[in-house]
Fold this protein.
Amino acid sequence: MRYVLRFPRKGQENIRYKWATFRPDGSVEDINRSKNMVNVEGVITGEASADYLTEAPPHRLARYFPGARLIIMRRHPVDRSISHYRMIERYHHTGRKGYEKLQPMASFFKEEINRYRKDLNTRIIHRSFYRFYKEQWLKWFSTGQVMTISLDDLAKDPGTTVQSVYKFLGLRDYSPPIIPPENVPPQEHSDDDNDSRAMLDYFYREHNMLVGDEPFWSGLSRS
């Protein structure tokens, strides 16, 4: 299996790969890195970054990988936005560059929504407009190349969901080993958190009504 470490930015011609060799139980045995762009028969190249749906230019990916198959994983838009906020807060507390201290959660999202209504740039909430960004990718890739799955479905029935992905990718049936969750910080719910959830839930439902999209998250579990 070969993974793209990072998609090439403008002006870059080389793609850096990470090659993973697996043991029979599914664990990683070895990882090698390479800048080789040559196609390799019988090898699937994959990459997964949370910001690609909204930040990566589809035409550039179509240039390098016109036959690529894309998998979009949708998460409850409120949960995704709050998780994004908490990630920035964690990065700020650990001293990571480029991540400043944010306002209290409810104040931050109130300002984000106000900015959106004024047609100003937002930092977090726009990234949950899945339909809009999917339509941008479908201008460069056919519907048969794009699969959409739900994080909720993956959590409830990982076996069935993973098998559907294998089928989409043209892979043989395989039962992967159960991998325990990683990078899952403890969740704390405060009044500020609850106010933010109520505000965002109303905002995203209103947005979906305006674009004629059904709120797919109705009835989904909330983290």
Remarks:
- Strands lie at 2-6, 16-22, 28-34, 45-46, 70-74, 146-150.
- Residues 191-210 form the longest helix (20 residues).
- The helical segments are 52-55, 58-64, 77-93, 105-117, 130-137, 151-156, 158-169, 191-210.
- Residues 218-223 have pLDDT under 50 and may be disordered.
